Amino acid sequence: MAPVGTPSVLASAADRLGNALRLYAEASLRSPALFATDPEEAIDNLDRAFDAILVGFHSMYDAMATEQLQLDWHAHGDTAACILVRNARHHNAAGLFESWNSRMLKHGELNRVPGAAFLLVGYRLVAGEGRVSEYYVRWDDFRARLTMPKSESRIKDPAALAVLFEQDCAFAKIRAHAARERYPAHQVYLNLIPIAINAASRVFSALRVAGVTMTGFDSTTYASHFAGDALADLQTPAFKSIRAPGD
Q1: Helices 193-209 & 9-37, crossing angle to 10 degrees?
Q2: 42 and 242 Cβ atoms separated by less than 8 Å
Q3: pLDDT tens profile 34-81
Q4: Where are the alpha helices (DSSP H) in 93-148?
Q5: Paired strand residues for 113
Q6: Which residues of the chain have pLDDT under 50?
Q7: Which runs of E-coded beta strand occur in 126-191?
Q8: Which ranges in 67-157 belong to alpha helices (H)?
Q9: Are 79 and 202 in contact, with CB atoms under 8 Å apart?
Q10: What is the tally of helices (H) and strands (E) in the chain?
Q11: Are 10 and 70 in contact (CB under 8 A)?
């Protein structure tokens, strides 16, 4: 094994993840203005930028395994969720985890359900101030993925992951709130950005503890921003409602 502190697959993977985070941030900032003139391009740009974040996490997952850097990705709700969503989207598993923008706006589903109410779920920031980007996917897709046959999902212990998400990502609280307010599960959407930034914090913190030297501008920048405590409080979901236009 190469010394962890030298430029290696870990440093390369860190820069790939940092670069993906920057590209997503830039796409998110440009999205509102672009959406006004070319909605499809705006939606596609943001989707591909988020895909790059997921690929960045998966590359880091592989690099850590190669370099024997200890981080149990499946023991934490944030990192486990990012890998699960990446694998489902990468393998196009029954169209799971399509973004709200793609499903509702690009493909017009919002116009086919006039008057329907949707529950949008995010998480509060630990600092209590500021906002994060919003990238919503259907929350029930987690259940759908975890209940697929193991031969299809290739998830070793879906029951354990389900419990992990209940606890680490407050899925139990989301379920209780949705039931109390009478939202069907398929009309509940979850913002993945707070989960992703906590996963980034966990990964960059592990690299810092292991003494990995960042070699690229993006990895250096984002390591300094994320290598610390969690930025989002995944125990405190925040809820808002949106209604489709129409009746």
Answers
A1: 160
A2: no
A3: 999 999 999 999 999 999 999 999 999 999 999 889 899 999 999 999
A4: 100, 140-146
A5: none
A6: 1-6
A7: 136-138, 188-191
A8: 77-90, 100, 140-146, 150-153
A9: yes
A10: 10, 4
A11: no
